Queue: 2 jobs
Job 1
Amino acid sequence: MSGQVLRDGAIVDPSASLKLPSPEGKPTVTVLDYGSGNVRSAVRALERAGAEVILSSKPEDVLNADGLVVPGVGAFETVMRELKAVDGIRLIGRRVAGGRPVLGICVGLQVLFEAGVEHGTEAEGMGEWPGKVELLPADVVPHMGWNTVKVPEGSKLFAGVENERFYFVHSYGVQEWNFDVIQPRMAAPLVTWSEHGAPFIAAVENGPLCATQFHPEKSGDAGARLLHNWVEALRRPAAGGHADNTHHAEGSTAADTPSGSNPANGGTPAPESGTA
């Protein structure tokens, strides 16, 4: 196609938005291009998982793709500022309100919560879920390496990899999960936990909105299977184009309390530039 270039392995076409469906019949995924570094591995992992991937911040690409991935590396406040600069917060909110799948990764998970506290300064998040991102109370930070996770029953994101280890690079996390409003018609989010100094949220599945604190694209076969699960779910939307679980935290109940994790193993991928 005239005008196309390749950037970090993804198709970037300044003159045309992503077309649906893709020519090969693959689910289409936009990786939100707002300046987050080191997205090459995420783009390639999504392609291997069966998606046609575009790196873009154009509203039509963000809104029309089957799935949107929000990567994130660095400081909470910086990521929020960069998202605002490309109108990313509004676009993400529109997708979520319309039941269109979104997957946040690392700081892409953190900014979905109400606030982040770093170096004594609190920054406002998107507020999709209640809770604050705070420094992990561990002797050694960042938490860098492989760790086990405690997956709740019924998880579709972790199907087939419930007992596997995933790769983390972060110093901050959400350490509490409490919803005080219950609406019986809404399905409760599924919360996956891990532990480093204290239990923290490793992933959330909330209807069309999912997120992981770890990097699935750096988590070997387990991460590849998780991304495959997410991409395959884009092929099978529920009636009306919505995901299987009803979104929004207001209808949720508290998740099970987490347990400790087992010692990690496995090789260590090259870390992203910066930690969350």
Note: The mean pLDDT is 82.
Job 2
Amino acid sequence: MIRVALLALLMATPAAAQAVTEGRGAELRWLDKMSGETADVELSRGQAAVWGRLTIQLDSCRSPADNSTSEAWAHLTIRDSVADKAVFNGWMLASSPALSALDHPRYDVWVLRCLQS
């Protein structure tokens, strides 16, 4: 019985992949939790911005091809100059920033949207 279930699982066809579009950049927002200061910035792919102790680099921004305003996924590399290391390296989702969030005692960063051509 277990073998049949395992075989059925292995033979299952993958779900249809959603078509995505690569944006030319992304709009991000950050927050300094100590001062309450916020700022929005637009970054192009490969571009980095410095804010406070953080250097934030946008590696990629993707959104659904059929509705680019509904969601955005951005791959970010965030470095802290005091820690001298990457404090975040991964994908952030605009609609669910807590799923993959920057864990920093002073700063928050989240994705607002992808910038399209």
Note: Residues 4-13 have pLDDT under 50 and may be disordered.
